[in-house]
Amino acid sequence: MATNDRFGSAGSGQKTTTAESLSSTASSALSSAGDQISDVAGQAQVVAQEQLDKLSASIRKNPIQSAGIAAGIGFMLALLARK
Fold it and tell me: Do 75 and 82 touch, CB atoms closer than 8 A?
C-alpha cells in the first residue's frame, strides 16, 4: 500500500505542475489578446474621430445640402416606421 501512496503522490504533483503550466499559458494568452483588443479599439476610436471631424467640416462647408440630406433621411425613416 505504501508503494501506491508513493506513486499516487508523484502523479498528483505532476498534474499540479501541468495545471499550473496550462494556467500560466492561458493567462499570458488572455493578456496578449486583451492588449491586442485594446490596441484595435484605440485605432478604431482614432478613425471614428477622424471621420467625425471630416463630417463636421463637410456640414460646415455645405450646410444647406447637409440639411436637405438629413431631412430626406428622416423622411425615409418615417416612411419605414409607418409600415
Answer: no
